[in-house]
Amino acid sequence: MTMTVEQAGLTVIDPTAYAEERRLHEACALLRRESPVHWVDGLPEYNPFWVITKRAHILEIEKNHQQFRNHPRPVLVPAVEDQRQAEQGQLLRTLIHIDDPDHKALRPVAADWFKPKTLRTMQENVDVLARRYVDQMAARGSECDFVSEVAVHYPLQVILSLLGLPESDFPRMLQLTQEIFGGDDPERRRGETPEEQMAVVMDFFAYFQRLINDRRETPTEDLASAIANARIDGEYLSDIDCASYFVIIATAGHDTTSSTIAGGLHALLEHPDQLEKLRADPSLMPGAVEEMIRWVTPVKEFMRTAREDYEIGGQTIKAGQSLLLMYPSGNRDEEEFDNPDVFDVTRRPNRHVAFGAGVHFCLGAALARMETQAIFAELLPRLEHIELAGTPEGVPSTFVSGLKRLPIRYRLTGAPVPA
């Protein structure tokens, strides 16, 4: 049955569409053609909003951060959660929840740690970890679930090591991350009620409060110490600002990258000609990584709220109305990308919007690129054979999502290096 524009607009609130992807991309393509700035209303579960599907409009909104604010609705949540936040305030105050002047003051606290010049000092450690996880694949034999055994653990170890957390705490951080981003997934969410979901945030806060106290009492040379001991106007960050900083780095700092790595491998398996092209010419790797990021687009949306009336795409956005920025749609925009539904490791240029734009451009973009390039640079030269060993499965989530299962069968060269 042919999808209508109204049905396409409703698709963006359906978590299962993000796990299936084909239906999501079909809906977004229809909206780009017929209603690129589309009003979604009449739903008891959600407050109304505009869906923004074209890349140029997404960039225009992102770069006009004074007119379009993150507060009070930074991500798509049900109306009951919007109401709770309006009455009680936001429990989290991460960089994605706040606007200037707070954002301008808080972002520099960790920004220097994620600049390419600084990250180059991490390259050797990232390469070692990439080799370790490929060696573990070789040691397992000929089959594994690439998501649960490789893709989620490798970037998790990178970002939590940067923070300075003990390796014994990594499984707990992984569980909390999957719970906080997996509220729409029965396999990952903690309980059914908002209170049970809020308990995840409180568990994060309890963990990081202990970390804050420890690093202030005994500072070290890691990122956790930099955040815990940062001062603005001579004062420590508040406990909620400090803990929120840890939450966004510890979660988004690995979950989005793991989605790119798993989704990137899946794309190569679905396009064996691109896999062979990349294996034959490793110099294509940086561009291939950009194409993986475009193809997967792990962060599916952020929201903005208009401060004043604004004209865009032939529509008038009224002051106080919210807009849903659909990054997967912007990254398949026919006006920007030739053959956008084709995975092409030689794509040039590749001006995707997966990292956002403007003052809220992703803090960890350079690290995500480094990690993704390192794991594929280690894996692809050692591949003699690889194929799917089952059906891949996605995470149903309207915010951050990717694959949660990617069963593969493979043959690798090179004996694993002893740990």
Structure commentary:
The strands form 5 sheets. The chain has a 5-stranded mixed beta sheet, with helices on both faces. It has a 3-stranded antiparallel beta sheet with strand order 4-14-11. The chain starts with a helix and ends in a 7-residue tail after the last strand. It has 19 helices and 14 strands. The chain is α+β, with helices and mostly antiparallel strands and 419 residues long. A hairpin with an 8-residue loop joins strand 12 and strand 13 (403-405). Helix 12 (170-181) crosses helix 15 (239-270). It has a single domain (5-412), classed as Cytochrome p450 (Orthogonal Bundle), CATH 1.10.630. The model has no long low-confidence stretch (mean pLDDT 92). Keywords: Heme, Iron, Metal-binding, Monooxygenase, Oxidoreductase. This is Cytochrome P450. Pfam families: p450. Belongs to the cytochrome P450 family.
What attributes does this structure have?
419 residues; alpha+beta; Cytochrome p450; five-stranded mixed sheet; globular
What does the radius of gyration come to?
21 Å
Beta-strand proportion: 5-15%
Spatial separation of the terminal alpha carbons: 55 Å
CATH level-3 fold name = Cytochrome p450
SS field, number of helical segments: 19
**Strand-pairing-aware structural class:** alpha+beta
Query: What is the typical, i.e. mean, pLDDT?
Result: 92
